[in-house]
TrEMBL record:
Organism: Centaurea solstitialis
Alphabetically ordered keywords of this record: Iron, Metal-binding, Oxidoreductase
Pfam families found in the cross-reference section: p450 (PF00067)
Gene3D superfamilies per UniProt: Cytochrome P450
A GO biological process held by the record: sterol metabolic process
Name this protein carries in UniProt: Cytochrome P450
Recorded GO MF terms: heme binding; iron ion binding; monooxygenase activity; oxidoreductase activity, acting on paired donors, with incorporation or reduction of molecular oxygen
Coiled coil start-end: none
């Protein structure tokens, strides 16, 4: 018992000293009002708890009320400044590299990769952005409408083959992941898509975690999932590269082919690592956004019979 008490006192004292050091360091900086929370953990736990309860906006509002529309915090191991409002958005989105350089939380930069488009600057950023934009144009996406429609139909029939009850959010996440895999990245193997989906779910959870790489933590599982994703992706990249060289496909076939083509033409600037990192980034970015939007649409239709009827009549 005495040993446990000694350990508890030692850890408590160290924790208290770290807290004091953080406060002294914090006062020396020209930073907005706010709290960096506990060392390393910051305010991550309360933020994640709010997200789980769908109270993220309330979490922000509490701090805006206390500190103002610009406040500091610490999330996922990274000191963070939150800016609220139209003028703040204009500043973030309109500032050039001389004023503001994008810097992602450690969890995102390590799980997604340090060469993801949000971390790149200069010519590398322009080349990667060009490769993505060339495929994401409305004219390019319109050519895939028929394929997307067929994918949705097939997936829906498969999911309702043995049951009439579908968990909406889970269904939408799997559906959007399948569409992204097939249409955006040209991955056709169902088993491979399923394996990717499993690991990306783990990786996505790691992005919203404390960056402690110890066995059993969400971050540790996320890093291992990223390694498996890369191991499965590299043979696909090599195959698509060979197809491009031998004329069996073209750069506009999918985003991976577009990125590989840019790398071929700019060998000294673009690397395979950049292709991998931006593949992981795009998959993580599309993991929840579209799925949540479509789930909310279903929820709205279920709550409003009049709108539901109009949509049904429109079909």
């Amino acid at each position: 018992m005495s040993t446990l008490l000694l350990i508890a006192i030692t850890l408590g004292s160290a924790f208290f000293l770290l807290k004091l050091l953080f406060k002294k360091k914090d006062k020396a900086k020209n930073l907005p009002k706010g709290s960096l929370g506990y060392p390393l953990i910051g305010e991550t736990l309360s933020f994640l708890e709010a997200q789980k309860k769908d109270q993220g906006s309330e979490w922000i509002s509490q701090r805006v009320k206390k500190y103002g529309p610009v406040f500091k915090t610490s999330l996922m191991g990274a000191p963070t400044v939150v800016i609220i409002g139209q003028s703040g958005n204009k500043f973030i989105l309109g500032s050039d590299e001389a004023v503001l350089i994008a810097k992602q939380p450690k969890t995102l930069s390590t799980i997604a990769g340090k060469h993801n488009i949000f971390e790149l600057t200069g010519s590398r950023y322009q080349l990667i952005k060009g490769a993505l934009s060339s495929f994401m144009k409305p004219s390019s996406l319109q050519t895939n409408i028929k394929q997307i429609d067929q994918l949705i139909t097939d997936f829906f029939l498969k999911s309702t083959k043995e049951t009439n009850i579908i968990p909406t959010v889970i269904f939408m996440k799997r559906l959007t992941f399948n569409i992204a895999s097939v249409v955006l990245f040209g991955i056709q193997d169902d088993l491979l898509i399923e394996e990717f989906s499993h690991d990306f779910s783990i990786a996505f959870k790691a992005v919203w975690s404390i960056p402690v790489n110890l066995p059993g933590t969400a971050y540790w599982h996320g890093m291992r999932a990223r390694s498996r994703i890369i191991a499965r992706l590299m043979p696909i990249i090599r195959k698509k590269h060979a197809d491009l060289l031998e004329g069996r496909s073209h750069p506009g076939s999918d985003i991976l082919s577009s990125l590989i083509d840019v790398k071929t033409q700019n060998k000294d600037v673009i690397t395979d690592e950049m292709i991998v990192d931006n593949f992981v980034t795009l998959m993580i970015a599309s993991h929840d956004t579209s799925a949540i939007l479509m789930s909310l649409m279903v929820w709205k239709l279920s709550k409003d019979p009049e709108i539901h009827l109009k949509v049904f009549e429109g079909t």
